[in-house]
Amino acid sequence: MSAAEVTNGLIGAWRIVTRDERAKHCFDLSTAGAARSFSALLLSVPVLFFSITASWRIAQSEFDLARDLSFGLFITAEMLSTFIYWGLFLAAMMRIAQALKLRPHYIAWLITYNWGVLFTTVAFALPLIPYSLGIYSAQMAVVLALPALMLLAWYRWQIAREVLGADKGAAAAILVFDFVLSLSVDQVVGMILLPGAGGFSG
């Protein structure tokens, strides 16, 4: 994958957020483009690692959480739950698209989903950089990171509606399923790997 494709993918994701019709021209919607879009997930991993590390510091130093947890085990649990969630959600969405008779749009949805993961992961990480540099407090970092969660929900809503072609009811159900699956995977992995954390994970 070239730097130009990464740039186009991020620009396309931004255009989806802003409902710019030019977004579709930023993505290679071929089968080969779908395969390459998984590189966006790989590129998300170091950014995700940074965010989890910053979250660990915030939880320990500012909110007195997770003090008895191993940092390595915490990172492992968070990364593993993310990978499991990605795999389960993408597989489930293939079946959901088929059930909704929207299977022809699945590849385009998959591509925009994968690039959206990179886009929203970066958006979530950005407010954590000044915190990590000691520029502002953990509370400010948390407040500034909250809009990234709204951005994530909006992005997933947009691709469900405009790319997959789901109606409003189905798109809302997909968002709820997405949230519940992510939370459930987090909790299960946390109970297995972090039994002393009281369910703290993610």
What would you say this structure looks like, in words?
The structure is a single chain. The protein is globular. Helix 2 packs antiparallel against helix 3, helix 2 (31-61) runs parallel beside helix 4 and helix 3 packs antiparallel against helix 7 (168-193). The chain is mainly α and 202 residues long. The protein has helices spanning 3-17, 31-61, 71-99, 106-125, 128-132, 138-163, 168-193. The chain has one domain. 75% of the residues lie in helices and 0% in strands. It contains 7 helices and no strands.
Mean pLDDT: 89
Helical content (DSSP H or I, runs of 4+): over 70%
SSE string, helices as H and strands as E: HHHHHHH
Poorly predicted runs are 198-202
Strand content: under 5%
The secondary-structure class comes to mainly alpha
So how many helices?
7
DSSP summary, beta strand count: 0
N→C terminal distance: 30 Å
Rg value: 17 Å
Task: Describe the structure concisely for a colleague.
This protein has 202 residues and is mainly alpha-helical.
Topology:
Elements: H1 3-17, H2 31-61, H3 71-99, H4 106-125, H5 128-132, H6 138-163, H7 168-193
Helix pairs in contact: 1-4, 2-3, 2-4, 3-7, 4-6, 6-7
Defining traits:
202 residues; 0% strand; globular; disordered C terminus; mainly alpha
